[in-house]
C-alpha cells in the first residue's frame, strides 16, 4: 500500500509534461517574384569617352548581327542590347578592343550553343533532386540561385553544363527591372568530396560564367564550407580577380559571429543583412521552412520564364 501511495504522491507532485514544439508544415512554392520594396543597385553613369566607346561597339555589332531572315535573329537582337554592351565594356574595364573580342566570342558561342533555347524536357532530369534552383531575392532584387552539391544525381557532364546554362538563362528572366545580377548560395551541408562536380565540369562552368555572362554575379554566399572546398579555394584565391573575390562571402549564423578567427570580417555574411528575413530558408539559419518539390518548382519556373522558351531583352 505504501508503494502505491508513494507512486500517487510522486505522480501528483510531478510537473505536467512539456508541450512538444510542433514544426511548421514545409512550403513547396518557391519565391520567384521579387518583393515590392527591393532597392536595385545603380550603375555608375558613363562619361563622354565611355559613351563614344559604346557607340563604336554598337556600330560594330550591328554589322555582324544575323540577318532578319535567320531563325535566331530575334534572339540575337534581344541579347545585343545597350545594357549587354555596357556589361561587356565594364567587364573589360572599358578597353574597347578587349570588350569587342569578348562580345564577338559570346555571339558566336550563343549561335552555336543557343543557351536560351535549351529544351526544359531535356534539362529536367538534372533538376529532379533540387541540386540547383531559384528561391527568393536579396534586398537589391537579385534572384537567389541555390546550389546543394549533396543532391548531385548525374555523371552526364554535357547535360550538367547545359543545366547550369539553363539556370543562368532562367535566372536572367527572373530579374526584375533595374537588376542585372544574381546571387549564388552554395549549401555544402552533408556534401562529400564525391558530390563535387568533376574538375572538367567545374572549369567549364567558370569559363562560361566568366566569358559569356560577365557582370552577372552579385554575391556568392558559402554555407558550411567543407575542407575540400576550403582547400581548393585557398589554392585558387590568389588568382581570382579582386572584384570577384570580394563577392565571395562565408555565411555565419549570427551577426558578428566569427568562428573561424582566420577570416576577416569582410569575408563573412549574416544573411538578414542581404536577404529579407521571411525569404531565408531554415537551412540557412532562417525561418522559411521550404521543401523542394520538382513538380511545383518546374511548373512555376516555366510559367514565369517561358515554356519552353521566352525571348527577352538582356
TrEMBL record:
SUPFAM superfamilies recorded: CRAL/TRIO domain (SSF52087), CRAL/TRIO N-terminal domain (SSF46938)
Single annotated GO MF: phosphatidylinositol transfer activity
Domain CRAL-TRIO: 134-292
Region (Disordered): 1-27
CDD domains: SEC14
Pfam families: CRAL_TRIO (PF00650), CRAL_TRIO_N (PF03765)
Record protein name field: CRAL-TRIO domain-containing protein
Amino acid at each position: 500500500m505504501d508503494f502505491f501511495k508513494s507512486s500517487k504522491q510522486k505522480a501528483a507532485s510531478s510537473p505536467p509534461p512539456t508541450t512538444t514544439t510542433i514544426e511548421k508544415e514545409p512550403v513547396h512554392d518557391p519565391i520567384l517574384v521579387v518583393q515590392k520594396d527591393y532597392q536595385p543597385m545603380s550603375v555608375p553613369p558613363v562619361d563622354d569617352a565611355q559613351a563614344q566607346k559604346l557607340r563604336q561597339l554598337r556600330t560594330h555589332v550591328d554589322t555582324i548581327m544575323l540577318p532578319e531572315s535567320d531563325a535566331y535573329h530575334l534572339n540575337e537582337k534581344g541579347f545585343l542590347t545597350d545594357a549587354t554592351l555596357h556589361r561587356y565594356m565594364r567587364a573589360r574595364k572599358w578597353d574597347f578592343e578587349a570588350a569587342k573580342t569578348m562580345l564577338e566570342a559570346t555571339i558566336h558561342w550563343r549561335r552555336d550553343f543557343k543557351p536560351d533555347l535549351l529544351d526544359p524536357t531535356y534539362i529536367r532530369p538534372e533538376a529532379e533532386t533540387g541540386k540547383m534552383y531559384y528561391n527568393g531575392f536579396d534586398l537589391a532584387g537579385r534572384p537567389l540561385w541555390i546550389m546543394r552539391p549533396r543532391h548531385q544525381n548525374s555523371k552526364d557532364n554535357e547535360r550538367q553544363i547545359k543545366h547550369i546554362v539553363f539556370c543562368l538563362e532562367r535566372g536572367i528572366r527572373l530579374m526584375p527591372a533595374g537588376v542585372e545580377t544574381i546571387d549564388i548560395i552554395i549549401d555544402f551541408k552533408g556534401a562529400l568530396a564525391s558530390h563535387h562536380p568533376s574538375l572538367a565540369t567545374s572549369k567549364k562552368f567558370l569559363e562560361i560564367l566568366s566569358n559569356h555572362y560577365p557582370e552577372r554575379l552579385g554575391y556568392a554566399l558559402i554555407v558550411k564550407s567543407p575542407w575540400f572546398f576550403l582547400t581548393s579555394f585557398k589554392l585558387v584565391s590568389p588568382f581570382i580577380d579582386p572584384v570577384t573575390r570580394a563577392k565571395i562571402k562565408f555565411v555565419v549564423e549570427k551577426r558578428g559571429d566569427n568562428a573561424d578567427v582566420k577570416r576577416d570580417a569582410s569575408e563573412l555574411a549574416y544573411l538578414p543583412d542581404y536577404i529579407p528575413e521571411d525569404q531565408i530558408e531554415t537551412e540557412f539559419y532562417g525561418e522559411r521552412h521550404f521543401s523542394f518539390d520538382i513538380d511545383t518548382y518546374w511548373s512555376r519556373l516555366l510559367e514565369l520564364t517561358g515554356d519552353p522558351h521566352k525571348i527577352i531583352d538582356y
